[in-house]
Structures are given as C-alpha cells and as structure tokens.
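chain below, 392 aa
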Amino acid sequence: MKTIKDLELNNKKVLIRCDFNVPIKEGKIVDDTRIVGAIPTIQYALDHNAKVILMSHLGRVKEEADLEKNNLAPVAVRLSELLKREVKFVNATRGEELENAINNMNDGEVILMQNTRYEDLNGKKESSNDPELGAYWASLGDVYINDAFGTIHRAHASNVGIPSNLQETSAFGFLIEKELNALSILDNPEKPFMVVLGGAKVADKIGVIENLVTKADKILIGGGMAFTFLKAEGFNIGKSLLDAESLDFCKDILAKYSDKIVLPVDVAVTNEYSNDEEYREKDITDLTDEEMGLDIGSKTLELFENNLKEAKSVIWNGPLGVYEFDKYKVNTDKLLQYIVDNNIKTVLGGGDIVAAATVANLKDKVYHASTGGGATLEYLEGKKLPGIEAIK
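prediction:
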C-alpha cells in the first residue's frame, strides 16, 4: 500500500482529500471527531515542508438553499485551533480566487477549499466524477493524498478523478492506512473467526453474509434481521420486524450453512414499539401474534458469549436490539463489554455499532472501530472500492 510516507513532499503542493463531513448546527461544529482524525496526515505533510490544500465534501448539495448550511468555513476555524496555525479558507471550488491562493502559498501553509459538493449544484460534477473537474483539481497540485475512508466507496471527482490524473504521485493517508490494515484481518482471519451481525434488514447485509459465511466459523445474528431468519425457520415472530423479500435468501443460507448460523433462542418482547412499555423475555417458541421482539434475551446473550469465548478474531456490524431505546440497548452493551473484558480481537464494522460503542465508552477499547459506514459495509461484502482502486 502506497502511503504519504512514500512520496516526496518538500516544496510540493499537496492535495489532501479529507472527510470533514461533520455535524454543524447554527455555524457550530457539534462533533469534531473526523477533523481530529485527519490531523496526523496533515501534520506529516506540514512537517515535510509541503503546501497543503485540503478538500472535503459536507452533506448533500441539491439546490441553492443547501449551500449555506453545508459551508465548510467553520471547519477551517477548528482546523486552525487543532494545527495551531492559520488555515486559510477559500470560498471557491475553482477559479481565479482559488488558483491565486494556491499559487501564492509558502511551504508550511494550509488552505481549505470550499465543499467539493458545491460542484454538484450544476450537473453533479463531483458526485458523477466529471472528467474535466477531476483534471482541473489535479492541475492545482503536485501530490494527491486520499485520507477520506468514509467516501472511498464512491467514484467522485475528488477521490477518483484526481488520482487518475496524478497516478505517479498519489497515495493514502494514515487514516485510510489504519482502516485497511485493520480490515485486512478478513484476508486471512485468525481462527476461530466469528461474525456478529445486527441491524434492521437482512437485505442490507446479504452481500456481507454471502462473502463471510464461507470464511467464518460462526455468524451470530441479532437485531431486527434475526426475525426474518426465525420466520424462515417457521417460528411465529408476531409483529416483529420482517424483511419479507429476504425470506427465500434466509431459507437458502440456513439450508446450506445451518452449522454456522447462530440465531436467538429468546428475545425481549413488548406489545408496542416504545421505550415506555414494559417488556418481558420469552423463548422464540412462545411469541404471540401481538408481540414484537426488540432485543435479544439473556439466554441468547449467554449463547453468543459462549460462541465468542474461544474466538481469535471478530467482525461486528450492527447492534443487537433497538439501540435508540435505553431498554433495548442493554445486551449490545453487555456483549461489547464481554469482548473488551476478554480481550478478543474485534473490528467494529462502522455505523451504528461504532456509535453504540462510543456511547458505552468502549470504542477506544476494541482492536478497531471503523470510521466508515457504507464504505466498511461494502468492504465487508468483498467489493472493490473505487477510491482504493484509483490509487492501487
């Protein structure tokens, strides 16, 4: 893997594609985690006398009204604080103002250009990887570094178009290097290798299941998606979440890999989708037509822990219950704590399970918590990711 360390940066104009897609309310950054995550790569470039030009998208830009709320200006302010030097914000994605600012840079200076998706306003030029835009942005720099793992599954002008025009001087930043090194446990996982899958719909995880079922020793299934598997096995799931279109897939996987798929044996049920209603634990054989399951039960938690006891490597994607409700996040938290207490090498596969681990103050205690949502999911499916392929 070619990284920023493999390129000459001294006196070079270095374009760094970051992921500054952070929540901003009333001009204030609510969570700067992604900005902080980009600092090591930026600082490395500065330490090697580069002229640093930062790029990122923020939100979606479909109409004029989206421009102001997705303005990257507040990010420049926070970057200046973190880097302890001025980060000049250029309110443009192309043109004379941007070009002059870059051409007048000294070594060790930093520019943040405006949201790359401003280019989507007229023809989706960023999101459709417009060749002219990719070539133009490439012309602004000598070196290109992609450090935005969260968008690496998208073929955009800022992460595919630019490196296709700077092939000899393109590489990955430290954040992407860390992500790919962690996820590489899939290439040759240490056995026993276990997969924990939660979340709502089976349809969202079909590719993951198909890719991992042959590699894993066991796949432990919780969350809303478990009920479609239970329905496929003939259980009455009452009013629990059902992904009817995936029933045939579940039947097929269960028939082929019954020895690998581990399903709940009990669930926390209630009669209303609410955090206020009382719930009770019931075996999956005992649900009535009016009940719905919103979490795995204590027997299932014990079953999952027993399966993980000897595990040497684990991938986990998706919570085991309705995590937004305090009552139904308990067993997700307990299984996370079990993994941490037993020092099991676990990669949390992005999105909601990383958010759950963050809330439980366990994110920094697992082997790796992926910053990617859709990117991580597509990686787990075994898909080729455009942002990686453009540099490889």
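The mean pLDDT is 94. Residues 188-380 form a domain with the Rossmann fold fold (CATH 3.40.50.1260).
thats it, cya
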